[in-house]
Amino acid sequence: MKRILLAALTASALSSPALAQRTPPPPPATVAPEVERLRDAALNDTVAWDIVEGLTTEVGQRLAGTEAEARARAWSVARLTALGFKNVRIEPYRMPVWERGAESAEILAPFPQKLTLAALGNSGATPAGGLTGEVAVFPSMAAFQSAPDDAIRGKIVYIGNAMPRTQDGSGYGAYGTARFTGPALAARRGAVAIVIRSIGTDHHRFPHTGTTNFPEGVKPIPAAALSVPDAEQLERIASRGQPVRMKLVLTPRMVGTRESGNVIAEVPGSDPSAGIVLVGGHLDSWDLGTGAIDDASGIAITAAAAKRIMDAGQPRRTIRVVWFGAEEVGGMGGEAYAKAHAGERHATASESDFGADRVWRFEVNLPATARPIADRLQTALAPLGITRGSGLGGDGTDIGPTIELGTAGIDLNQSGWDYFDTHHTPDDVLDRVDPAALRQNVAAWTAMLAVVANAPEAIGPVSPR
């Protein structure tokens, strides 16, 4: 009878999730106490804030290839040297430079009113006195692409979009095509100019600029982004069913080839054969704000974390901090770096270029020999509220060319809920940076570097993404 009762109870337990014996998860990987001490001390960091405040105050906006970006490089060398980094230097390269001019727009009919907009990088120019034309209004990129050419030829094209707010920023890739490729497609199809709804999640009357690209053989047409409220106003006017006429003035220009450059600093490691841990962000910014979140915060976070490792003693691997130039206008800095350093052995590459909000997730792309590193990172980062993702690490315009050479990647993903409210707008200024969130970033990067730079495992090449 006891055996029958025991069997019944066992069967009941196995059929009931609440009662069934569950296999416990494996114990978390252990990390050295020094990693925890460094991580926790970094929550009181002031270096990152000092860098962001100093760069945005003493230099300000830093459009690639301009005198302002050159001043930023000189400022960076002085600051990184003062912080104690070694081998601080500038690696220059040449690049074509685009500069903003006058920009304005107004609806002439049926309901005259002014609009707020900003030219897109690489935009063509209108005549000095402006360009007037009928507006062909398309609520989405798909509607524009499916329209016949005769609905576009000779018109000022408008493309709408409604970018959603997401934590991982995935809406940018899906809805950014209106800016990335819309102007070139409009030019090919005979449009005289194009305006788009800003690629952003805000409803402030701030336009979002950003680069667009006209392939060789496609003559650039005037291209600009309307602030979200102005874009919605244009759509409402068009919905009344009357032809819409707009006057557009955009006078940007290409000014030839000028110098940009990458600023490089190092924490020398004890084992040159173990490979370089590459970290950084981009020094240049757009010219509407002072580039506080994009990307003064990113270069500050990574440099502050590297300094903490340096001050704690010599790591096994060399940590190379790179403040890349000319990211915003096409990623020239990342390409120049990868070309100049292709013969060196990089263990990992990581960049911070998604604002200054808290890190919420990390992802890796490591070879099999280095898988235990990811387990230790999970343990080290969990107390900061950071979870392990299932994607591949190695995202970023600046590190992309180095990742393509087979370098392992580690990403520390910041929350993007609010990032595209400010991205590429005049509102990208210091008061958009939360000091507490900035310190959490420094703690996360400090923990990551403490684990990776001192890991005993070999970190060999991986298959390119």
Automatic annotation (TrEMBL):
GO: which molecular function terms? carboxypeptidase activity; metal ion binding; metallodipeptidase activity
Spell out where the chain crosses the membrane: none
| Binding partners and assembly | Homodimer. The monomeric form is inactive while the homodimer is active.
* Pfam families according to UniProt: Peptidase_M28
* Species, as recorded: Sphingomonas parapaucimobilis NBRC 15100
Q: What keywords appear on the UniProt entry?
A: Carboxypeptidase, Endoplasmic reticulum, Glycoprotein, Golgi apparatus, Hydrolase, Lysosome, Metal-binding, Metalloprotease, Protease, Secreted, Signal, Zinc, Zymogen
Question: How far does the signal peptide extend, from start to end residue?
Answer: 1-20
The organism's superkingdom is given as: Bacteria
UniProt GO cellular component terms? extracellular region; lysosome
Q: Name one GO biological process term.
A: proteolysis
Q: What is the official name of this protein in its record?
A: Carboxypeptidase Q
Q: Ranges for the Peptidase M28 domain?
A: 262-445
> Sorted alphabetically, which Gene3D superfamilies does this protein's record hold?
3.50.30.30, Zn peptidases (3.40.630.10)
Main location group:
endoplasmic reticulum
Q: Where in the cell is it found?
A: Endoplasmic reticulum; Golgi apparatus; Lysosome; Secreted
